[in-house]
Amino acid sequence: MNIQLHKRLSRKFIIAILTSSSFVTACTFSVIWFYLANIERLDILYDALSVSSAIGIIFGFTLISLLGFSLVIFISSFIVYLIYTAHEKEFRNYDGLTHSFTTVCMCNSFVMCFVLISAFCLQFFWDINGFIVFALATCIITAFSYGLCHKLIFSVQSYIDKDNERTENYLQKKSVKRFLPALLIIPAFTQISPLIFIAGQLDFIEENNSLVQAAIFILLSMVLIIVGIFPGVIIINEKKNKNILQIITYALIIIPVSLLVLTMIFRPTPNMIINMSMNLSGISDWRTHQYYISIENHPPAMFDGALWNTHFHKDIPSRFFITGVSIFSLGNIKLVCPTSINNVRSASLKTTADDFDEYNIRIKKLKKTAMTCVPFDKKEIHLWDSPISEPIYYQKVKSTGNSKILNLLHELK
């Protein structure tokens, strides 16, 4: 009785902490601090933290970002759990069948990863028809799932003996033998989603050949599959004699730990989640915009024309225009950066798989670029994307025809 009372008090205490305003405020301030520290602009942290009205909004979108990112990475765990829950009453009658079930799911995921990546490599290097390659890969994965289910589930003597003791033979049903192996392929195919997502965040050193890059990608994909399906496997194996609250507690512990492991391999993971949260809450806007500023507040000479595309219009003598990106806007503070920060920021969200030191170099470059950003009072700068004819530029760039800066200015003009 005392143990049950202790458990109830512990649960109420944990829930009270998680739902308290102090916890929400601390988490929100931590997110803002991490975001500004990543671009080394903590000089505006105090002004940002003075805004209390947006705390709940930021915290809410941070949770949404975390859940969305987790859904992409751990989609296979979610599907595995749903499949198991649908057959749980039957599986519980066979000792060890839960372990066999999770083993088949994990092995299917590994084989799917290896076969599909190998098939796409065949298509890329030997120019084989993509439809034929995909069809062949699908047949291999399907045959493997049916063969593994036959070996680990349908042919195990202890399961057969238990099945014969029952009034209704579950594992010997033709429908189970036909559809269960096919059903266990689904978690493997859902792994394609996180693989595509992470593949877009990978870079390689140009000197390395394609075969080395393919081998590294296969290895990282295997690690990602383990991270993605591991929470579901653990929760399923621990589900017996656990109530729903304990299962949720397991998930709240295992998923953050899995994300921590993922961060060790894909280091931009926290930055991706924080950036997603800032974008969803409207605090950051990484789109390119035109802004106008009063000459009384800031002289145009403070903004390098090659960097800010500084220009004015003869019919509007009291204002000048710049082109920039608002990477942080909270309270009365708006941090506007030159458009060059977009490419630097995109690079900082990628991992060079064969050179981990490259990530540190890119983060330093992001911080250096962010130092050129200018913090404005929101009353001093205004968004104006509507086109105005015949702009007059404060600075022209003299360079060769291959200048990237000149090409950028031409695009902006």
Topology:
Elements: H1 2-18, H2 21-38, H3 45-49, H4 55-73, H5 75-91, H6 97-126, H7 130-154, H8 157-165, H9 174-183, H10 186-190, H11 192-199, E1 202-203, H12 210-237, H13 244-265, H14 269-281, E2 285-294, H15 305-308, E3 311-313, E4 316-330, E5 333-337, H16 341-348, E6 351-352, H17 357-370, E7 374-377, E8 381-383, E9 392-393, H18 404-412
Parallel strand pairs: 1-6
Antiparallel strand pairs: 2-4, 2-8, 3-4, 3-9, 4-5, 5-7
Helix pairs in contact: 2-4, 2-14, 4-14, 5-12, 6-7, 6-12, 7-9, 12-13, 16-17
Please provide a written account of the structure.
- There is one protein chain.
- The protein is an alpha+beta fold and 413 residues long.
- It is built from 18 helices and nine strands.
- Strand 3 and strand 4 (316-330) form a beta hairpin.
- It is elongated and about 90 Å long.
- Residues 397-413 have low confidence and may be disordered.
List keywords for this structure.
two-stranded parallel ribbon; 9 strands; elongated; disordered C terminus; 413 residues; alpha+beta; 63% helix
